[in-house]
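FW: tagging you since you asked about this chain on Friday. Here's the raw sequence from the shared folder, copied in full. Didn't touch anything.
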Amino acid sequence: MIELTWPQVSARRLDRAGLAARPTGGPVEPVEAVETVAAMCGAHAQVMSAAEASIGLRLDGVTRAHVREALWKERSLVKTHGPRGTVHVLPARDLPMWVAALSSMPSSHHTAPPSMRMTPEQVEQVIAAIGEALAGAELTVDELSEAVVAATGPWAGDLVMPAFQTFWPRWRQVMHLAAHRGAFVFGAGRGRKVTYTAAPAAEPAPDGLAGLVRSYLWAYGPATPGHFAQWAGGSVTWAAGAFQRVELEEVLFEGQRAWVLAGDTGVPDEPPRGVRLLPYFDAYVVAGRPRELLYAGDAAGRALAGGQAGNFPVLLVDGNVAGVWHQRRSGSRIDVTVEPLRDLTGAQTRELTEEVRRLGEVMEGRPRLTIGKVTVGPHA
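HL: got it, structure written out here
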């Protein structure tokens, strides 16, 4: 059995995530942005600016404008609910795979408090109503709510879901499930209002769940069914069944059993090197497990929030989380504060300066770097 160390796996994952070397080579073709998002297994987009940074920092010459063009004009990318039910940017071409894979998760209709629950029949009614309302249309959430309640009944509009110091109608608790079924994707928006529209037409994926396992293990292997379950948001039983759909090879990863795609055991010749800034909920840190290897030593206490990765933007040095950072925007100026957990060498400081310059380019602003204490809390 092949044995792999953390430096080997770290170098391999960074290379496949587009984080091993600073990109060079001038303007990027649109297909490269799509390939980058595919290699990440999606870019987390609850905070859209973070998704723009995640994608842009992996490519040379890409700005947030390019990402928006790919989403709303070229439609080569789509914004929808992805792993764990959270909002992600995904390649449009891969949406059938994601729909087939995520819709295969067993439903959990009874996890909500009794006052909020919907019967399985009501869930199906709402999902069908969403799809019918958005066929050929782009609606705000209020417009969609009116259509769903009209199609299903007053019960769907009961304000029972606590949300941001208010209450949402009952039907909205299945939005992520409807997206996983392919009922909608996000629209371009109407002013400051979020909109939803029908998912692009495509042939169903023959075995989307196997496809997603392959994509995940190529990017983040070696891994276990438990790791895959935590990343995707399903049960370990579901994940174990998913692993059985793919030809795998067992390895020892830092002494623990884990799996890669059969024959995919190669690693780079050199250990990981370089300084990178990763924004909120970057796919690399959310999917990167075991946590104690990526967030070694004092990084866990400083950069994880209750064990959850992504709440803090992180400084990555030689493949390990080595600090946190925060940006504050005022007009075109972007003040970037980076808090390293250990002293940086002169070369590493120069790399950090270049990374901040590139962040400003991606976000179309004028960055200014300060090395010091980050005083804001998680997800600030």
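FW: Residues 44 and 88 are 4 Å apart (CA to CA).
HL: agreed, and The mean pLDDT is 95.
FW: great, closing this out.
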